[in-house]
Amino acid sequence: MERLAGRIMLLWGLPRIALAVLAGAIGALALPPFDVFGAMFVSFTLLVWLMDGSTGSADGGLFAKFRASFMLGWFFGFGYFVGGLWWVGNALLVEADEFAWALPLAVLGLPACLAVFYGFATLVAGLLWSDGWGRLAALAAAFGLAEWLRSFLLTGFPWNTIGYGAMPIPLMMQSSAVLGIFGVTVLSVFVFSAPALIGTRRGMVPGLALATLLFALHFGYGAWRLSGADAAAAATGGEATTVRIVQPLIDQSRKLDDAERTAIFEEHLALSALPPQADTKRPDVIVWPETSVPFILTDNPDALSRIADVLQDGQILVTGAVRSEEAGPGSPPRYYNSVYVIDSQGQIISASDKVHLVPYGEYVPYEDALRYLGVTDAIAMPGGFTAGATRSLLTLPGGLNLYPLICYEAIFPEEFSDSLERATALLNVTNDGWFGSTPGPYQHFQQARLRAVENGRPLIRAANTGISAFVDAYGQISKGLNYDQKGVIDSTLGRNSIPHWDNSARDRHFWLVIFAMLAIATISRAGFKFGTN
Predict the structure, then answer these.
(1) Same domain, residue pair 169 and 291
(2) pTM value > 0.90
(3) Which positions are annotated as active-site residues?
(4) Measured distance CA(262)–CA(506) in Å, rounded
C-alpha cells in the first residue's frame, strides 16, 4: 500500500482530478439502495492520499496551496453528489416537454453547488494538515463542520450527509441518538480515513487504535441499545391503536391529469375499505400519503361525504392534502401542503401545514430579493406553496398525538419543537413518485428512519409509490411495503417512547467531538508527536 499511496500523492493534472471525482463517486455506493459499507473506506483513504499531495505549484505560495486543497474537495464532492443525487433529474422527466431542458442543471448543477461545501472541508483540513494521524482528525472535524453548514445555509439541503454511510442497519444507527447525524459524521470520517495510515505509516499505530476503538463503540452501543428493544415494545403504556397505511401506487403523470382526479380518489377509498389483515383488528386510523386528496377539501363537501361513507364509526383518516386560504381582496389564494385529520362524520378535526418547503419545487427562495432586482420571470412559479408559520401536532381522538413531517422535512434533524414530547409517534407522509425506481426513495426512507432513532419515537411512513412502513423507535421495520407495490399494511401502535437525548444535547455532543478533533489536529500540526509508528 505504501507504493500505491506514493503514486497517488504524485498524481497531477487530469489524472488527479479524475481520481478525486472517482473517489467521491465510490463513496456514494455506501448509500441506499446499494449500502456497500466498505465503499467509504476506499473513498476517504484515496482522499487522504490526494490531500497529502495537495501542495499547489512550487512558486504559488499559500494561495496556490489553499486553492489546490479547495479544488480537490470540490472534485471529490462533485463525484459524490453526482453519484448520490443523479436521480433528482427524474422529476423533470415527468413533464419532459416543459422541463427536460433543465436536466443538466439538476444532474450536474446541483452537485456542483453542493460540492462547494466539501471544497470548504478540504480547505479547512489543509490549514491543519500534518504528517501524522492528526491529519485524519483535521479532515473529520472539517467534514463535520461542512455537513452542519450544509444543513441550513442557502435554505439547507443535508441529503446524503456522510454519516448515513456508517448507518446502513439498525445496529449501526443507534449512535445517532447520542451524537446526531453530524456527530456521527465527524467520527465516521476519522474511521473511514484510517486505512490511509497503512499506506503512509506515519502515526499508524495510534491512529488505527483510535479508529478501531470508535468502530467497536459504534457497534457495541448499538448492540446494547437494541438489547432493550423487546422490553420497550412490550411496555405499551396504554391501549394500542391499530393503524393502516395506504400505498396507492399512483403514477405521477396520472396525479397531474385533472381527468384522473375522481378515479384516484376512489382508489384511495377502495384500499381504505379493505378488510383487516389476518393478524390485526379493524384499523382505528387510516393514513394516506402526501397530497393524496386531489381536491381542495374545504371547497368540495362531496369529497368529505365520500370519506364519511367509507369510514366506519370511530375510524379516523389522516391524509396529505392541499389547503387553500384567501389572501385578501385582489390577491390570489395561498396554498399549503398540509395534513388533515378527518373523522367518520367527514369533519376536519386537526391539521398541520408543511413548514420547510422544497426550494424551486414548492417555492422560489429569496423571492422578495429577486422581485426587488426585477427578476420577475424567475419567481413566476405556478402552483407554488406557502410555508406554514408553525408545525402543529396532530391530535386524534383517544389521546393519540402524531408529529407530522411532510416529505422533504424528514431529512432535517432540527425540525423538532418542544411539542415532540407530547407525540406518540412521528408521521412522515410523502410522494416519491416523482423520482421513479431510482435510489432517491431508498435514501429518503433511510433518513426518515434515523429521525425515529434520534427522537425515541416510532415512525408511521406513508408513501405514494413506496417505501411505506412502520418503524420502531430503534429504526427497525416491523411491517412495510417496498417501492412500486400497491396495497395496505396494518399494525398496532403502542403509546410508548424510549429515553432519548434532545436536539440541544446532541448539538452539545457534536461540538464536543468537533473540538476534540480540532485539538488533536492542532497539537499534531504544532509538532507534538502522538505516535509515529
Answers:
(1) no
(2) yes
(3) 290, 354, 407
(4) 46
